[in-house]
């Protein structure tokens, strides 16, 4: 495993672009355009994808792909998920229905989530504590998914690196659990 594709998904404004900018060693590729959706409170929004790279201490290269968050661009979610070894789902806890947002991504990425590692990062928990982490974990369990759920501030490089490290541990565990061909 010398090159890894990681997918970062979540609603518009959850912090996908910010997370990639926080850790990328290259100038991130961004397809931000002027936001015309009144439901999204930000000036720019991702229309295609974000892209960044991160080299691990062992020399492995991570390719970080951020999806657009608006559902009208959901066709990009599956396109970008091809070949991904892991998914970071960013959930904005300040939105009206964070568990519904989580369901949107679980449903849209169901095929990918059945075969890859996943970490759910809940953003803005400092100001919006409900649902709590246990509520997210129980919701995931009810949907047949078992993956770590952690709070995150993706503006902080160290927290994004910690998310990626947690995802890499999940990827490693999955690779050890899968049958090897001889």
TrEMBL record:
Belongs to the GPN-loop GTPase family. Keywords: GTP-binding, Hydrolase, Nucleotide-binding. It comes from Delftia acidovorans (strain DSM 14801 / SPH-1). The lineage of its organism: Bacteria, Pseudomonadati, Pseudomonadota, Betaproteobacteria, Burkholderiales. SUPFAM superfamilies: P-loop containing nucleoside triphosphate hydrolases. Signal peptide: none annotated. This is GTP-binding protein. It comes from the Bacteria. Gene3D superfamilies: P-loop containing nucleotide triphosphate hydrolases. InterPro entries: Gliding_Motility_GTPase, Gpn, P-loop_NTPase. GO terms for molecular function: GTP binding; hydrolase activity.
